[in-house]
Amino acid sequence: MSGTFLARLGKLWLALILFFLYAPIFVMAFMSFNASQYYQLPFEFSLKWYEKLAGNTEIIDAATRSVGIAIITTIIATILGTAASVALFRFEFRGKRFLQVMLFPPIAIPWLITGTAMLIFFFGIGLGRGTPSVIIGHVALALPYVIVVVSARLATFDATLEEAARSMGADGWTVTRRVTLPWISSGIIAGALFAFAVSFDQFVVSYFLSEPGDSTLPVLIYTSIRKGFTPEINAISTIIIVVSMAVMLVAARFSNFGGER
Amino acid sequence: MNKPIILAATLAISATGTAVLADEIRVLNWQGYGTDLGWAVDAFSKSTGHTVIHEYFNSEQEMLTKLRTNPGAYDVVLINAAFTPQAQGEGLIGPVDAASIANLADVPENLKGNEDLNAGGALHGVPWTWGLTSFAVNTNEVDELPTSIEVFWDTAHEGKVSIRDDALEAVQFAAIATGQDINNITDLDAIEAKLSDLMPQIKTYWGSENDWNQFMAAGDLDVATFWSGSASRSMAAGLPVQFIVPQEGAIGWLDGLSIPSSSTKKEAAHQFINWMIDPEFYVKWAAEGAPASANAKAAAALPDDAFNKRVLGDPEVVARVQFQRPVSDENREKYLELWQSLKAAQ
Amino acid sequence: MSTVLANQERLRIFGLLSPAYLWLTVAIFLPLSAMLYFSFLSEVPFGDAEWSHTTENYEAFFQTSTYAILLWKSIRLGLIVTLVSVLVGFPCAYVLAKVIKGRSREALFLLVILPFWSNSLVRIFSWAIVLRGNGVLEIGLNAVLPFEVDVNLMFSTPAIVIGLVHSYLPYIILTSYLALQAIDDNLIDAARSMSANKLTILWRIILPLSLPGLLAGAVLIFVPVVGSFMEPRILGGRVGTYFGTVIEDQFVAVYNWPLGAALSFILLAVVLLILAVASPVLRRAQT
């Protein structure tokens, strides 16, 4: 590029954006190590909020519940989503385009609407609030992501591989097990990690569906923030952010998300 | 992995079992309002074996909706007597067995017999505490203690004022400012105009006591509505605030403890309520700051310089208090609409 | 023979697809239908409540100006947040796609996208910590600037906008980046060799070619922002009442689910309208 000045300006802009994106998160995390309950400065290093956190059964229960729900969601969404992706990729049939479009509502409709609709429906059929309702909702939100990610990986699949296997006498199931699945396994792992992230970070739908006393971590954080917050929330938030960013970094490795390599 | 489900199953099984000694009861209350004091809950657990879990609400409306949409989730709920008839009418709470609450004997007849708490012809709420909704000022920011509610409209405090985001409380607050009867508001237009003038003064709505204290500690607010019990607690904690009962008057309320009709642990719930109106608990609580107790023995046990004796024991102050009564559905809707449109216009 | 195979195949397709789509039906499409039905009821029809069919929930939207004002307020918020995100995010995506080369590009791109996958609630909470008066922002600015500044952005519309831009900025960077990356560098070089100036290149080549990605990102931002309620609640204070918060109130506090359902559907209609308008462009972006 000829305009080195412009290029430099651009890089500066990028640096500013990164600062904007990360600074508040660092400040928040920083404050979890500050002794003052009212976030007063000067900074005084302390681990007391993490110690308090370790003794807070409510938060720990909510965290375990969140992880449990995320794992169950991941398993269900990954299996159902992979199956659907394989069908959408391998077969041509009428209505396929329609089915693909049907994946968008869970992503495109504001969660406020989906969440309240689920609340109404689950009450209507007598299921009410609670962990089962939350899992049903989370799986539905995670499914489209799994299908999109696995399909993207399938699209790079060379169909002649399957044909070669078949011509050597392998039956359909063997071909799927020995050829197709290994090929798309990195896509499946990425899809699973996305599903985990979607569930673990999900707030709105959980907010409307979780039962009092059985809330997930984000719901607990929201109610705590509205009651006036303490650095304990900073501490748990810091842990959450580290966990979800770590999950996404791993997901990115598997999904080749960074564009061309 | 299936932990929540297994846990739920075990809970369900243990709940249906007959010889259950220890229960886990769920209490629905404002945050930081007595029932969730760590030492009190610990002592209760030690004495009875029951454990206590808390869930909080930000408004009476929210409390009622939590009861409606989570049947079976709660065992004890705090309800302002003005809302007890509504909760009873909707079948959300059941009658209390007075015989199994020994400390009820020390509650004066006029409170025990309170018309609203006895909605439906039986005691549905055990009188627990009473107090005032008025306001407090930040003494670091306000030099001279105001005597009039008009301080909320003083432009010197623009952007440093707060009230709660609650239609009923906002309307009744403005009723006091416009010299009306809070239970029989005749000039709603005047209230709308008064509140509309108030809006630009407001920085934010406060949601809980903890919230309120943080704003005051940070110097974000000069003056904000507050409850007498909470104010005494904030002062005891060393915050630079002073509770004011202005010449225009204040809102009075009586809070009762009720048992949801869907509760499956009614016995433990009765034990908890009895524990909560015990004078011994109350005196300890009052030392940290508490509203006035409905228990005569408890109130008598307070030292003379206690906040509740000083402020609420003053007949001149009590004469200015208007006690809240139930609000009709029609009025409630009107107030809600008014408050919503004012908020929307911001 | 062929019909047997076709049947077998059909069975297989059905077996693979039905679990996922059954799940989506139960969790998304039936609930939306139930909500549509609810929006025409007079009362919540549980327990022994008396209820009837009515259109008054939709009429309520038009009877007072409250809801229309709030809906407009939410749409305006959506527009502002989208516009700011585009102005801030597009140059950033351009730098990533066209200025930075080699290995660092991938790492930087990942770094930009990463916060998007962390909990949005936690990030809004971070801003609440930063923006409070006597907060870190003020201390930081006063340490750098030679004069005293008094920044108290908490509980204001700018606070909501900042929080929402922070939440959704990675969307626009992601979609623009993908679109910009697809533009052949040779095309730009060719234009330059014909001595087109930078503005012309931007206006005639880069913008038109990356427009689908840009619009896709804009829609992805606009839609959730119009329905946001948590961010205004936490950062907005007195000015934090929006269409989304009123819907939340109907479900969580006021217990007027039918009205909440009707308001949700009005919001959904607005969202669908916007998606419909944008869809021709979006379809182009897919291909």
UniProtKB/TrEMBL annotation, chain A:
The keyword Transmembrane helix applies. GO terms for biological process: transmembrane transport. It is a multi-pass membrane protein. Its main location: membrane. It is found in: Cell membrane. The chain crosses the membrane at residues 12-33, 67-89, 101-123, 135-156, 187-209, 233-252. Coiled coil: none annotated. InterPro entries: Bact_Polyamine_Transport, MetI-like, MetI-like_sf. Keywords: Cell membrane, Membrane, Transmembrane, Transmembrane helix, Transport. Residues 63-251 form the ABC transmembrane type-1 domain. One of its GO terms (cellular component) is plasma membrane. PANTHER family: PUTRESCINE TRANSPORT SYSTEM PERMEASE PROTEIN POTI. Belongs to the binding-protein-dependent transport system permease family. CysTW subfamily. This is Inner membrane ABC transporter permease protein YdcV. It comes from Falsiruegeria mediterranea M17. The gene is ydcV_3.
TrEMBL record, chain B:
One of its GO terms (cellular component) is periplasmic space. SUPFAM superfamilies: Periplasmic binding protein-like II (SSF53850). One of its GO terms (molecular function) is polyamine binding. Its main location: periplasm. InterPro entries: SBP (IPR006059), Sperm_putr-bd (IPR001188). It is found in: Periplasm. This is Spermidine/putrescine-binding periplasmic protein. It comes from Falsiruegeria mediterranea M17.
TrEMBL record, chain C:
InterPro entries: MetI-like (IPR000515), MetI-like_sf (IPR035906). GO terms for biological process: transmembrane transport. Gene3D superfamilies: MetI-like (1.10.3720.10). It comes from the Bacteria. GO terms for cellular component: plasma membrane. It is a multi-pass membrane protein. Keywords: Cell membrane, Membrane, Transmembrane, Transmembrane helix, Transport. PROSITE patterns: ABC_TM1 (PS50928). The chain crosses the membrane at residues 20-40, 75-96, 108-131, 151-180, 201-223, 259-282. Belongs to the binding-protein-dependent transport system permease family. CysTW subfamily. This is Spermidine/putrescine transport system permease protein PotB. The lineage of its organism: Bacteria, Pseudomonadati, Pseudomonadota, Alphaproteobacteria, Rhodobacterales. The gene is potB_2.
